[in-house]
Amino acid sequence: MAAGADTGFSTRQVHAGAATAQASPRATPIYLTAGFTFSDLDESAAHFGEGTGFGYSRTGNPTVHAVEERLASLEGGDQAVLVSSGQAAVTVALLALAGAGDHVVVSEHIYEGTRGLLLDNLARLGVETTFVDTDDLDAWRAAITPRTRALFAETLSNARNDVLDVAAVAAIGAAQGIPLVVDSTFTTPYLLRPIEHGAAVVVHSASKFLAGQGAVLGGVIVDDGRFDAAASGHRFAHLVQTDRLGGASYAEKYGARARGQYIRESVAPRFGPSPSPLNAFLIGQGIETLSLRVERQSQNALAVARWLEQRPEVERVDYIGLDSHPHHGLGERYLTRGFGSVFTVTLRGGLEAARHVVQSVEVITHMTHLGDVRSLVLHPQSTSHAARTVAERERAGVFPGTIRLSIGIEDIDDLLADLEQALVRVPVLERETVVL
Ligand SMILES: *Cc1c(COP(=O)(O)O)cnc(C)c1O
């Protein structure tokens, strides 16, 4: 850009020195820019016409793109779309499939934000939800109607650590041309890659294990690139019909990648939850240590869960890694590298015992969040699950004495010592007199 000494002060303050230095950075550069220059008219026309290159950061950004490529590879998917939060990822995935008059079948054990999205927001847009018991394959099958556009569940649920039988539920959907969308936040691609078991779309809150250090929010939608227009076209008219101007449909243009491209070109950029390139960079940095963190977190969580299970103050521990968990066998089948780091513990002393523990821990932090390098604790009944009825909470394994732990990478002895000092002074009631 010409900003020589002959140009004015105001011109130089925006143009001088702006030329990009050519270098080959080893770390992914942060392209913190709203848009990208076009070298000529043909380049800009090709960008708008065929989507080549980069034009504006809401539709594509090199830093964001690098993280998308990394996540698509780790998930074994065809392509990934990074968005600004996990909630945005769930919203974009569902809006890419369902519209007014449509229907989705959803596991009843899901993240409260997603439950609210379905019950309040998508309901108001005319998308109806049927909730089913995650384990009940007949219920999944029976809930499907001609308007069903997606099955949705979490791989490992909060609070009871139920494991989704991904292959079984995916097969029920596939038999009728309906994709299984899974929220794999708790398992990460290191522990489980749902696409390998038949899921069509995977979403994550990247704010959790992927970023890993609790600094930024982000979300991702990974598509498997296996859209089958012959089997599913009757449910997804927007993917198989000619476009608004009479041009080729997504399926004609992109074949098996139609759904992923629709998410990337139409839904994510129009609803607009674009990730900041800076946040994308931090998520990309986090992913570089994902396997090390999740391996250590899973080891620590298993040790903490086993220790807690032996304590007299503890009524039950719902951790998929324990033999006592009803889904342990299913967990072993799907989670061969570890069982994750998030689980619940129910104390015999009820609410007062839970209050005492969350207020007494010193190494473990009392806050809402999970998947952090730091260990965290929260009381679900009064926080994440407060909007549910007592019966719904009990079905989810949430009682007045239940606390949720997200175990971090600290030294295990320090975590056990912290829990020990919090538990020794806890009000203990006998099992017979416990008020849950
Ligand atoms: C946190 C979380 C979300 C929402 O993600 P945000 O990044 O907080 O918007 C969705 N699903 C699950 C399972 C989560 O834990």
Percent helix range: 25-40%
The name of the CATH topology of the largest domain is Aspartate Aminotransferase, domain 2
State the distance separating the first and last CA atoms: 70 Å
For the sheet with most strands, the description reads: 7 strands, mixed
Series of secondary-structure elements, N-terminal to C-terminal: HHHEHEHEHEHEHEEHHHHHHEHEHEEHEH
Strand content: 5-15%
Ligand inventory reads:
pyridoxal-5'-phosphate
How many helices does DSSP assign?
A: 18
3D architecture notes:
The chain has 436 residues and is of the alpha/beta class. It folds into two domains: 55-287, Type I PLP-dependent aspartate aminotransferase-like (Major domain) (Aspartate Aminotransferase, domain 2), CATH 3.40.640; 290-435, Alpha-Beta Complex (Aspartate Aminotransferase, domain 1). The protein is built from 18 helices and twelve strands. The protein has helices at 9-15, 41-50, 62-75, 86-95, 112-124, 137-143, 166-174, 188-191, 229-232, 237-240, 250-254, 258-271, 277-287, 290-309, 328-334, 350-360, 390-395, 412-423, and strands spanning 79-83, 103-107, 128-132, 148-154, 180-183, 201-205, 219-223, 314-318, 342-347, 365-366, 376-378, 402-406. Helix 16 (350-360) crosses helix 18 (412-423). The termini are far apart. Residues 430-434 have low confidence and may be disordered. Bound molecules: pyridoxal-5'-phosphate. The site of pyridoxal-5'-phosphate has 15 residues, from helix 4 and helix 5.
